[in-house]
Amino acid sequence: MAFKSKSYKDAAAKIDEGRYYSPLDAIRLAQKTSPAKFDASVEVAMRLGVDPRQADQMVRGTVNLPNGTGKTARVIVFATGAQAEAALAAGADEVGDDDLVEKVAGGWTDFDAAVATPNLMGKVGKLGRVLGPRGLMPNPKTGTVTMDTAKAVSDIKGGKIEFRVDRAANLHFIIGKVSFSDAQLTENYVAALEEILRLKPSSSKGRYISKITVSTTMGPGVPVDVNRTRNLTEDTDEAA
After folding, report:
1. How far is the C-alpha of 79 from the C-alpha of 36, rounded, in Å?
2. What is the pTM of this model?
3. What is the pLDDT along the chain (240 residues), one digit of tens a residue?
4. CB environment 7-34: b (16+ within 10 A), e (fewer)
């Protein structure tokens, strides 16, 4: 059994057992119960009613959070020529071709996102064993395989997040920092939720989202009412 600190237990005690909070109230409570002494991330976990083993039920996408993530993403770009120059001008942390491929092949993964131009995917594809398990492989569906490297870099650094359902049908993503206002975090939550709902597979049967939890780094999870999908930024006066 995992050890839980006194601060964690004290925080968890503030969450009413058996209660499902509105998204705004859950975010407020997560902020209030964050035991970390640093500016912790606010995270959302969802359990989806899909079968990830079926290709047509794989939920994967990106969304630009209106208030960013509070974190400056480290972005590398596999590109040459004008696309490489554009990526550097947009703020890419490292840009390269064979040299960058070799560096990543050696095990270097000190970055949060990777972008590649289509003509270099033949080389980048060989990095699947390194990038794949970490969810860092460039993909045209998420806008990270593109000739417009400047836009890709700007989007990612500006608050674009990527999400992908795992083998257990769970989604995890960050919506900001504890230092954000509850309104900013709720706006980010709404943006992500709307995109996830839009991506519901037509072959998915039954309840699409069965569980939602909001938490902070090192903090307890606050259960969210999955039926609340509208007017989420309105104050409900239910905060604990």
Report:
1. 39
2. 0.78
3. 455 677 777 778 888 888 999 999 999 999 999 988 899 999 999 999 999 999 899 898 889 999 999 988 899 999 999 999 999 999 999 999 999 999 999 999 999 999 999 999 999 999 999 998 888 999 998 899 999 999 999 999 988 888 989 999 999 999 999 999 999 999 999 999 999 999 999 988 889 999 999 999 888 999 999 988 776 666 554 443
4. ebeebbeebeeeebbbbbbbbbbbbbbb
